[in-house]
Amino acid sequence: MVERISLKSREEREKLLKEAYFNVFMIPAEAVFVDLLTDSGTGAMSDRQWAALMTGDESYAYAKSWFNFYESVKSIMGMEYVLPAHQGRAAENILFSHFSKKGVIIPSNNHFDTTRANIEFFGGTAIDLVIKEGEDPHKIHPFKGNIDLNKLEDLFKKEAKNIPICMCTITNNTGGGQPVSLENIKMTGELCHRYGIKFFIDACRFAENCYFIKKREKEQENRSIEEIAKEVFSYADGATMSAKKDGIANIGGFIALRDKDLYDQLSESLILKEGFLTYGGLAGRDLEAIAVGLKEAITMDYLESRVGQIENFGEMLRQNGVSILEPVGGHAVYLDAAEIFPHIKRSEFPAQSLSAALYEEGGVRGVEIGSVMFGREDENGNFIPATMELVRLAVPRRVYTESHLRYVADVASEIVKNKNKYKGYRIVYESPFLRHFTVRFAPV
Fold it and tell me: Model confidence at 377, in pLDDT bands (50, 70, 90)?
């Protein structure tokens, strides 16, 4: 299907932005010309997915669609126990309601927003231990999403008794959609198990990560994506996934596990919060769409097209003089707002300013991944900015054409040429968790 889009006038965009308190999450989708807010649940399903959706079995317990979904997950991840959820953050909530509490530390390469929020909601502390190259927007490294194993072991030596679980996000969304190497995943798993700590993978974009492993780890170049994926998950005790990413579905997620006892314990929480064990808040038709989407996501023709489109988008921006995080990741291009707007103080949120400018100038919606999302205050109320000030332009799967993305690159180029006219923002309202979704701003 195609959808009609239209570009609102400059005056209309300015009015809408002001009415939304300059938070692009709050702008009606019909008023957005090119929507790159997220790649989560925004992709176009294939003919095979639509066909499967029509066969959805809506029986309450152990429906046919559950078995199709289960076999698809198990065949890729090799894990015996699967708990479906309505999306990734619901899976995280169930997992961390079991593991996270006051005094608990949960490390990762980088926790993304909902993961961190769920850990902190239950009282735990989320720690990011990505390699130093992953904190530099312009450092070229094939696997900038890797966990710093030395820092991880140092933490284990000091705090192992307080660390029940270690996470690894693939690809590393917070750090620019950067991949994690197979070697790093293996060594992280081995290190966790040496200290008696469970190792879990945040598998939202596992297929894209496996593609980078195939392309960038020479010894993996002759293996299929499915073979690489099976090895990736073989080192983990479990995984959480939003199937709205590399499941290429509009809704859904799950927890995959090896441990029957843990499965039984989490099952109680799932039934209470989501639904019965075999649907977990999803309709049978959604389970069918995910079952097919997971298989499509690990095919080379799809991945070459998907990752290739993102790389081409990055090249358009480079050629237009727009500073981006390098190298380009698998699902999005990240604009370096700190470099684009050097005149805006970090405490006045340069990435938020760039996000608002993209909509004001061209009707383009991206998302701030900087100090609004990850900044904080210390115990004395001093502002601590995020490591990087980025705006993520996440490309929905199988939706936009090259001409759409070229338009976005041209809009970004005009902003760069006129950068000094843009100002920072101050926060006038925020919630205690996941503030970026509903935060309200006023211009400085």
Answer: confident
Q: Are 428 and 372 in contact (CB under 8 A)?
A: no
Q: Has this prediction a pTM greater than 0.90?
A: yes
The CA distance from 89 to 95, in Å, is 10
From CA 33, how far away is CA 13, in angstroms rounded?
Answer: 10
User: Could you tell me the two tokens for 45?
Assistant: 């399903």
Give the DSSP H/E element, type plus range, for residue 108.
strand 105-108
Spans of all domains in the chain: 10-32+300-443, 47-297
Burial label, 191 (beta-carbon count in 10 A; 0-12, 13-18, 19+): middle
CA angle, 368 then 209 then 168, to 5°: 70
Stretch (H or E) spanning 376: strand 376-377
Among 162-166, 361-365, 437-441, which is the least confidently predicted range? Answer: 437-441
* Single-letter residue type at 110: N
Q: For the domain bounded by 10-32+300-443, which CATH number is listed?
A: 3.90.1150.10
Does domain 47-297 fall into CATH 2.40.50.100? no
Q: Do domains 10-32+300-443 and 47-297 have the same CATH topology?
A: no
pLDDT digits (tens, 9 = 90+) for 321-368: 999 999 999 999 999 999 999 999 999 999 999 999 999 999 999 999
Which residues, other chains included, contact 381 with Cβ-Cβ below 8 Å and sequence gap of 6+? none
Residue 99 β-bridge partners: none
Please, what is the Cα angle at 191 between 157 and 204, to 5 degrees? Answer: 120
pLDDT for position 79: 97
User: What is the rounded distance in angstroms from the CA atom of residue 300 to the CA atom of residue 221?
Assistant: 12
